[in-house]
Amino acid sequence: MTVSVSPPRSPGDLFICFTLTALQGFGGVMAVIQNELVERRHWMTHEEFIEDWAVAQISPGPNVVNLALMIGTRYFGLRGALAALAGLITAPLILLLILALAYARWGAQPAVVGALRGMGAVAAGLIIAAGLRLLGALRSNPLGMAMCAALGGACFVAVALLRWPQPYVLFGLGAVACTIAYRRLSA
Questions:
Q1: Cα(27)–Cα(40) distance, rounded to whole angstroms?
Q2: Alpha-carbon distance 74 to 72, whole Å?
Q3: pTM
Q4: Phi, then psi, of 144 in degrees rounded to 5
Q5: What is the distance between the alpha carbons of residues 71 and 24, in angstroms, rounded to a whole number?
Q6: What confidence category does residue 124 fall into, taking pLDDT thresholds of 50, 70 and 90?
Q7: What's the pLDDT score for residue 36?
Q8: 98, 96, 71: which is closest to 15 by C-alpha?
């Protein structure tokens, strides 16, 4: 089945598309953006999306921002890139500013403090769940399960217990992990 592709009509189309995507994409937008660009608007084929998403992933910066810039540039040059980027960040920025104002006004209220503590626990749970899902990949890691556990434990001790600055710990342990992996792979 051949899908006909029709480009966006204007930079305004790009702005609206990426605004709607940004408003739907809490915590990850790949499925949302793929549905919007390929299935709903038919601006690209599934194969084109996969290719562009791959380039967006290996480029520095957030994947969806890279993709928005690539698509905007493809259809309308710099104007299109700016329209897509503005669509992607404007609504979330406004929402964030409203939340910041609300927090400044009511942040000391016990209900707000409790809600934020609850959200912190949920965020920690989501991070732990993501880590557990990735645990199976450590079986094929050149460092091995024991070394990965030791480095993870060292990171926890250094950041959570000793209160060392996180960037220093991550760069330091990252350098150790890269050195060990390099030696094991080249042996």
A1: 21
A2: 5
A3: 0.60
A4: 85, 160
A5: 19
A6: confident
A7: 87
A8: 71
Could you tell me the residue ranges of all domains in the chain?
11-105, 132-187
Cα 77 from Cα 74, distance rounded (Å): 6
Work out the number of other CB atoms within 10 angstroms of the CB of residue 180. 15
- How do residues 72-93 score in pLDDT, each as one tens digit? 999 999 999 999 999 999 998 9
Q: How many helices (H) and strands (E) does the chain have?
A: 7, 0
Average pLDDT score over residue span 122-127: 80
Overall size of the chain counted in residues: 187
Helix (H, G, I), strand (E, B) or coil at 182: helix
Please report, as a single letter, which amino acid is at residue 167. Answer: P
Q: Which residues of 25-61 are buried (b: 16+ CB within 10 A; e: fewer)?
A: beeebeebbbebbbeebebbeeeebeebbeebeeeee
CA–CA dist 45, 52 (Å, integer): 11
Residue type, 53: W
Give exposure, 87-106, as e/b (b: 16+ Cβ within 10 Å): bbbebeeeeeeeeeeeeeee
pLDDT, average across residues 7-26:
89
Helix (H, G, I), strand (E, B) or coil at 10: coil
pLDDT tens digits, 126-170: 778 767 776 777 777 888 889 989 999 999 999 999 999 998 998
Element spanning 55, H or E: helix 46-58
